[in-house]
Amino acid sequence: MRTPSFRQWRPAAFAALALVALAACGRPTSTSSASDAASRVYVAPGEKDEFYAFFSGGFSGQVSVYGLPSGRHFKTIKVFSQDPETGYGYSEQTRAMLNTSYGNVPWDDSHHPELSQTAGVPDGRWLFINGNNTPRIARMDLTSMETAEIIEIPHSAGNHASPFVTENTEYTVAATRFSVPTPQRDVPIDTYRENFAGVLSFVKVDSSTGRMALAFQIRVPGYDYDLSSAGKGPSHGWVFFTSYNSEEASTLLEVNASQRDKDFVAAVNWKRAEACVAQGKGTREPARYAHNIVGPDHIARTEWGTSVTVITPMNCPGLAYFLPTPKSPHGANVDPTGELIAAGGKLATVIPVFSFRKMLAAIEANAVDTVIHGIPVLQYDAVLAGEVPEPGLGPLHTEFDGQGNGYTSMFVSSEVVKWSTTTFQVLDRIPAYYAIGHLMIPGGDSRKPWGKYLIALNKITKDRYLPTGPELTQSAQLIDITGERMQILLDFPTVGEPHYAQALPASLIQDRQLKIYDLAHNTDPWAARGESEAGITRRGRTVHVKMTAIRSHFMPDNIEGIQVGDSVFFHITNVEQDWDVPHGFAVTGINNAELLVMPGQTRSIVWVPTKPGVFPFYCTDFCSALHQEMQGYVRVSPRGSSVPLTANTTRR
Ligand code: RUQ
Ligand code: CUA
User: Fold this and answer.
1) Residue list, ligand 1 pocket, CB within 6 Å
2) What angle is formed at CA 19 by the lines to CA 14 and CA 24, rounded to 5 degrees?
3) What are the pLDDT digits (tens) for 293-312?
């Protein structure tokens, strides 16, 4: 979401914190229960956490993996940002992952991790996340916890309402946050109403391989599409997208997009869309986009998309309906039964909860206020299940515990509010420190939430941790939701801004973790599967070194005959077949990254020496007692030198 600066936030915050302080009265103070809380998050040395949690890295562009309840950080999965620590996005095998129609884009803003689902329940196969800035969706494989695929979304600008999945991961969706001219063209910005449009994209996911493909796009009015959630059970076949700026303002949205009382949730019937596409009601439009896929040889390659099928609500009646929603909505979340859709209006005074059943009845009865670009606007009262009154200030996102309760984050009053999905009354509230954005319950957006914990994902931590200069960490708070009253158990800092997170029981994926890559199946063209395959070749000014790494030496080690300005490709194969034995590779003056090579894997990086001399390379990962001995030298001679190309491949 758009985070206000602290200056803007402050007056509201003080009022809010006063409120929060009041609300907290009568709750056990944190000190009296501190040891009790500590024991509930304590995971003893050698013991394992109960849940895996996947947090978005926000503007770090990555995903981080935590254990719950301990809050321990295990790994950062490299997704949209180059990572010199591992060579992701730098190595020859991974560079293509970051290709886009804008060129190689080495960064993004990742917001919403989303687990694949079967029958509406996380199945532990894949994790998706959106790239918000240069519109993309990434898919990670949960056995290797590596990025397997990234698809660019054409016609889109700011891929925010993404990558939420349908009940059986038939689709992952992507909606443009910023409407833009589609197709892109050079027009005056004040022709916004005539020339700008929104686009809702449906990306098909292959049910056996996970491979994504852009199925179709729906062109919709030029609003800002913000978040979404797929129907389940009775509402399977629908996706609900929030929108704001139904004013279609193009300047100072802070004021100009907050004029109307209500914006909209767009209810989209994707089965209807499929039927319209099948009936040829779409048009094929040119669109160039990158689709980057890691092959069976572990090398990423780009396939270029050239066109996309576009349909409009005008040409496909029954495709989309607008539900009027107060006021500048952010999240739209479907409850586990699939009947309720809770919307968070950033400036709203209530949380409106829509009824899917009533929505169908309203469509049937034609309870329509007006029609916008072929999209009927249903009557608010006809689709409303109820409103949660006086929830607090700035409702954003809702998750569910599967026990008939919704939990909504309140950005401005900085709290989590628990309410009943039958009476719509507020049952409990607890402060979040501070400025909570999303919240997450393991499985809390699915048909079967695991309940137990709730994580508050907070933007501001002023005074919560040891200060670290002007930039302070964002944080997560673990809240116990098993009792009648919520109880805060733990604060822990996060990597980047944690917009959203997803979690599942560790038992679902823990035993399926890949331990090594099979060396016998390494088909990288530059692999050296054994030391006898190691060697060196020159092709003009390019030199290829096929090198093996094993505890505790490289083969070859000493290299001579390199000249200043050569492009030297080091192709490192880790020939170990043991779990948890990566080797690193770095050479003096290399101006891109190191390589971190997993057992059985080949990774390649280029080094262009700039001066004559003798330069060491070494293993960067402390792999054995003789790790410090795992080294070699490269002799670099002036251009045109007659030193012959040699590499020491002897074992003496
Ligand atoms: S958004 S809170 Cu992507 Cu709500 Cu961040
Ligand atoms: Cu190999 Cu250290």
Assistant:
1) 1, 111-112, 160, 330, 396-397, 437-438, 499
2) 120
3) 999 999 999 999 999 999 99
